[in-house]
Automatic annotation (TrEMBL):
Biased composition (Pro residues): 212-222
Alphabetical list of InterPro entries matching this protein: Tellurite-R_TerY, VWF_A, vWFA_dom_sf
Organism the protein comes from: Candidatus Chloroploca asiatica
Stored Gene3D superfamilies: von Willebrand factor, type A domain
All residue ranges annotated as the VWFA domain in the record: 16-170
Chain spans, region Disordered: 202-222
A UniProt-annotated Pfam family: VWA
Protein name: VWFA domain-containing protein
Amino acid sequence: MTEFNFADSSTGRRLPIYLLLDTSSSMGGAPIQAVNQGVVLLYNELMNTPQAVETCWISVITFDSTAQQVVALTELTQFTPPPIQANGATSMGAALDLLGQSLDREVTGNTGERKGDYKPLIFLLTDGEPTDDWRSALSRLRSRTQKKPATIIALGCGVGANMSTLDQIADVRLRMVDATPDNIAAFFKWVSQSVKVASVSAAGGGGQMDMPAPPPQLTISI
């Protein structure tokens, strides 16, 4: 069972959640529609959880031929799920670089006067092979000395997802053999449940909590 540990994080007022979503052309059609619906599902589920409303901020980064932060880190009550379309290549390296820049710009660290944010939770969804230099980007992300991501969770969708790449990027890797709309919806449901548990832990002052087991459509490797 997956665990998130807040014990080494400072108590902060925000729990940043970053969604890194593959919007390459191979995600076109039903998969990208399911991703759009999944982000809406995540938002609705969190809005019905008082601790999440209190602590969660959300950002959405998409990557295809380029990477874009389509929603900057935004308070949950002000968040609007963005429309997402599929087109182009799979610039995962650009997404990792943009993630690092966003963390530097948006996440508040500790100072002598105040406690900063919790370490962010990163959820990465992809169905293919990166088409750019993701290794150098990953090295840059890991070389950051402050505001490091606490946990990167990656989902490889379908037979085209390169799990060996995700093994190097993520702390937790999930595999979805069939990237059907129902299975993608199950992933976002699991994300919402995981964030709920994390927000309860954050609101309660930290500590280690077990995360929900993934649905049967997903296999997990830690």
